[in-house]
Amino acid sequence: MNPSLTLTGDKAAVFATVENYLAKAGFAVAAKDFNRPWGGFFVLDETQAQAFADLYFPGINLDTLRISGKLSPKILMVQPQTRLSWQYHHRRAEIWKLVAGTAGVVTSETDTEGVVKSLAPGEIIRLRQGQRHRLVGLDGWGMIAEIWQHTDANHPSDESDIVRVQDDFGR
Prior knowledge:
Elements: H1 11-24, E1 29-36, E2 39-44, H2 49-56, H3 62-65, E3 73-78, E4 86-88, E5 92-108, E6 117-118, E7 124-127, E8 132-150, E9 163-166
Antiparallel strand pairs: 1-2, 2-3, 3-8, 4-9, 5-6, 5-7, 5-8
């Protein structure tokens, strides 16, 4: 958790704050998308995966995080009172950590959703390949560090590797 990082203001202000925070931390943003209906994300340079893991997942050996090949470090930004799709993935597992703000998560082994569990500041969530999950915006913006753990070295996961069971935005 980063108590000095305040996620307030409109969407543009929040994303500018996080982009400045990432730059000051020495991270290069390889791609970004601020136009998701639930918020958006920053994809960080793959060569900085070790530094990203050291900062956000200290004490977890990088080899433990790396199932197959690259790690695709990302920062997810979920806006208040929104939900990402109820989804799962065929070619990746994921690990999340609430860095700043507030957020919740729902997980299940089946297509049936359970209840939203509020994430504690600094809490780490591990999502297995195929496990159903949903990130949920609570009362304020949430900043989540995410690593994709690719399970197929010959066909790494990408944004198309999302099976949506339910989606508030009709995707």
